[in-house]
Design a protein that fits this description.
Layout (H helix, E strand, L loop, with lengths): L1 H5 L15 H12 L22 H21 L3 E5 L5 H8 L5 E6 L2 H10 L3 E5 L8 H8 L6 E9 L2 H11 L7 E7 L10 H6 L5 H7 L12 H23 L19 H11 L4 H18 L6 H23 L3 H5 L1
Parallel strand pairs: 1-2, 1-4, 2-3, 4-5
Helix pairs in contact: 2-13, 3-4, 9-13, 10-12
InterPro entries: Methyltranfer_dom, METTL25, SAM-dependent_MTases_sf
Protein name: Methyltransferase domain-containing protein
Organism: Steinernema carpocapsae (Entomopathogenic nematode)
């Protein structure tokens, strides 16, 4: 670690300088060699998005997705688009916003999203259902059976086991009516181990940390970061780790808490601690004990904080190799290989 720290000023996130330690240089070379992914863009220019009132990141993802899929729809004569996990319908609206006239169907398990989507769009047929391997066949027939139009199945950030399910479903549908599947996964760590062919066939599985890392941003993105961005990134990782360790030390199972329980805690340590006390309804008589335990944890790990950014660099160097392994593994699905 001392050698990495001493050479950090000579590392430009992927550019290997002549005086970089040999073992570190070999690490970056091998990490890059095992990747099948292309280099991401570092452009900071936002793409125009026809859907307003969405965050820049979401607007970028929608724009890139639609720009990539629309030509394929033309190629295959697609007239109908079914979006699995459509939320309130942003992606579907983007397909028709530039003058196209696709028949639009949105599948969403969250009833509140469906209600909101119906208020926003009259031209989208929303269906409130959770699609999975346990979905009854009659429900699948209702969604994929009635229309004779050529249909594209799309999913942007379909979570967890939805991805292997969509691939399996796509290979069962008649190709003349369903010629196109366009899906981008997220949350690899929420996929069950048995969803991976490498687990079923080789009894090998990636751990949760590796699956989470495979979803992270690419190392090249750090090239556009300023000093403040790096500090924010390091603090976010430090605070997340401290909070998780704190709850473990206090004997609190955060996996049973609502989603977002450990998010948006604050931008400094005092605020984070105050938010923790508030969210756990800690009485005044116990607050001092909680504060003492939290501060003791900070002191225990304080010397490690200076090295967090270096570990981030090493982790992100592994990201494309890990995601390449997951994507390559997905192609080994028996039905997909036969297809």
């Amino acid at each position: 670690m001392d050698r990495i720290s001493a050479n950090s000023d000579r590392m430009n996130y992927g550019v290997l300088w002549e005086n970089c330690p040999p073992e570190l240089k070999e690490f970056f070379v091998n990490a890059s060699r095992f990747s099948i992914l292309g280099e991401p863009s570092t452009s900071q220019d936002p793409l125009p998005c026809v859907i307003k009132s969405v965050k820049p990141k979401k607007a970028y993802e929608i724009s890139r997705f639609v720009d990539g899929v629309r030509p394929l729809c033309s190629k295959h004569g697609i007239a109908r688009i079914v979006d699995i996990g459509c939320g309130i319908g942003h992606l579907l609206r983007a397909f028709n916003a530039s003058g196209s006239a696709f028949e639009l169907v949105g599948i969403e398990c969250n009833v509140d999203f469906v209600k909101t989507g119906k208020k926003m769009s009259d031209d989208i047929e929303f269906i409130n259902v959770l699609l999975s391997k346990d979905t009854p066949q009659e429900e699948l027939d209702r969604i994929f059976g009635p229309s004779e139009h050529k249909t594209a199945i799309v999913s942007l950030h379909g979570c967890g086991d939805l991805q292997p399910f969509l691939i399996e479903l796509f290979t069962r549908l008649p190709r003349e009516r369903f010629p196109l599947l366009a899906t981008i996964a997220c949350c690899y760590h929420k996929m069950s181990p048995e969803s991976f062919p490498m687990k079923r066939e080789l009894d090998f599985e990636l751990g949760k940390p590796a699956l989470r890392l495979a979803c992270e941003q690419r190392l090249k993105k750090l090239e556009i970061y300023g000093e403040e961005d790096h500090q924010k990134q390091a603090f976010a990782l430090i605070s997340k780790g401290i909070v998780e360790c704190f709850y473990e030390r206090m004997g609190i199972d955060i996996t049973s808490k609502p989603r977002g329980f450990c998010r948006n805690l604050g931008e400094d340590i005092p605020t984070i601690l105050a938010t923790i006390l508030a969210r756990n309804d800690v009485p005044e008589t116990e607050a001092a004990t909680w504060k003492a335990a939290f501060n003791a944890l900070l002191e225990e790990h304080e010397e490690s904080f200076d090295f967090v950014q270096h570990f981030i660099i090493l982790q992100l160097a592994l990201q494309p190799a890990l995601e390449s392994l997951i994507l390559s593994d997905r192609l080994q699905e028996p039905r997909l290989r036969a297809f």
